[in-house]
Design brief:
The protein is α+β, with helices and mostly antiparallel strands. It folds into two domains: 9-198, Fructose-1,6-Bisphosphatase, subunit A, domain 1 (Fructose-1,6-Bisphosphatase, Chain A, domain 1), CATH 3.30.540; 209-335, D-Maltodextrin-Binding Protein, domain 2 (3-Layer(aba) Sandwich). The protein contains eight helices and 17 strands. It has helices spanning 9-17, 26-46, 69-85, 150-153, 222-233, 250-260, 279-291, 323-335; strands at 56-60, 66-68, 88-93, 100-101, 112-120, 131-139, 160-168, 172-177, 182-188, 193-198, 209-211, 243-244, 262-266, 277-278, 296-298, 315-316, 318-321. The strands form four sheets. The protein has an eight-stranded mixed sheet with strand order 4-3-5-6-7-8-9-10, with helices on both faces. It has a five-stranded mixed sheet with strand order 12-11-13-17-15, with helices on both faces. The protein has a two-stranded antiparallel ribbon with strand order 1-2. The longest helix has 21 residues, at 26-46. Bound molecules: 2,5-anhydro-1,6-di-O-phosphono-D-mannitol and magnesium ion.
């Protein structure tokens, strides 16, 4: 990147806004506030070992999981940032059973709702492993000026206006799409700005990496077991087409596979009969990003984005990444029902 020619996230958003003459800057303001919250969480994550914020809080979240302290912090920061943007009238987060409706005068007219996993993969934090935030933005379907209801949040993923993630890794990156390509911005700590570093991110058609918790192997459906065996047995003396990499943090695994080519799998198993990952704030945004970077997001039998959510915390089996790999696992599943 030419250091005299930096495009910050805000520059980029404003430039894109000009492509939509009817736009009033509402989406741009919302994204700006998401970016600010991401910087705040990034700062806290980077200081995690120093500021007594590692480890578990005393609370259980709605999934019955003990919340990590950073989970709580990230949830509060993103919710507050979305409220103060004035463009968002309600939020659904992994950490809350019900939707949060913003009744404040300046927010109730907001056009957008946001579904968010404030800190995904947080079970890894104590081991200094990368974690992330996942977000998904929809236009509300209820009337502006009224309080939002759950209906606004149970829209199929095809209705997403934008989706993205933040990865808090060796550097912090914000990756998002409005349906017109996927672009990645790296946080420059000296400037305190997200700077465009990965324009036009694309999944390779054929990937090499498969990312799955193989510890659950014996509990997987037959088709998935056969797919994993297929990846393992394709090894020859001269060629090793597939390699296994699993961080256990969806954002990090997805991000690596987006850069290098691969598939992420979280099938249903005995422990998670309908899958572990949540449709609304994990699978939909990641599938949106996968599709707009030339990849796929599937529940094993079809496109994730067309599923109409039945509940806020609904779980589904999830397969996402390079098209050739996702199609192949779907085929194995279909042939081994
Ligand atoms: P979380 O939202 O509670 O953090 O759970 C989601 C995470 C994903 O990031 C990750 O890929 C998966 O759960 C790991 O699960 P497992 O430890 O069962 O492999
Ligand atoms: Mg999560």
């Amino acid at each position: 990147m030419n250091s005299y020619n930096i495009t910050t996230l805000d520059d980029f958003i404003i430039r894109r806004q000009k492509d939509y003459p009817e736009a009033k800057g509402e989406f741009s303001r919302l994204m700006h506030h998401l970016g600010t919250a991401a910087k705040m969480v990034s700062m806290k994550v980077k200081r995690a070992g120093l500021s007594d914020i590692l480890g578990q809080s005393q609370n259980m979240n709605v999934q019955g999981e003990i919340q990590q302290k950073l989970d709580v912090y990230a949830d509060e920061v993103f919710t507050a940032a979305l409220l103060s943007s004035g463009e968002c009238c309600g939020v659904a987060t992994e950490e809350n059973q019900n939707i949060i409706t913003f009744t404040h005068e300046f927010a109730v007219n907001g056009k957008y709702i946001v579904c968010i996993d404030p800190l995904d993969g947080s079970a890894n934090i104590d081991a200094n492993v990368s974690v992330g935030t996942i977000f998904s933005i929809y236009r509300r379907v209820s009337q502006r000026g009224e309080q939002v209801s759950e209906i606004d949040f149970l829209q199929p993923g095809t209705k997403q206006v934008a989706a993205g993630y933040v990865i808090y890794g060796s550097s912090t990156m914000l990756v998002y799409s409005t349906g017109n390509g996927v672009n990645g911005f790296t946080l420059d700590p000296s400037l305190g700005e997200f700077c465009l570093s990965h324009p036009g991110m694309m999944h390779s058609e054929k990937g090499r990496i498969y990312s799955v918790n193989e510890g659950n192997y014996i509990k997987f459906p037959e088709g998935v077991k056969k797919y994993i065996k297929y990846c393992q047995e394709n090894d020859t003396e001269t060629e090793r087409p597939y390699i296994s990499r699993y961080i256990g943090s969806l954002v990090s695994d997805f991000h690596r596979n987006l850069l290098k080519g691969g598939i992420y799998l979280y099938p249903e198993s005995k422990n998670y009969p309908t899958g572990k990952l949540r449709l609304v704030y994990e699978c939909n945004p990641m599938s949106f990003l996968a599709e707009h970077s030339g990849g796929m997001g599937s529940d094993g039998s079809g496109r994730v984005l067309t599923i109409v959510p039945e509940s806020l915390h609904q779980r589904i089996p999830f397969y996402t990444g390079s098209t050739e790999m996702v199609k192949r696992v779907e085929k194995f599943i279909a042939e081994n029902q």
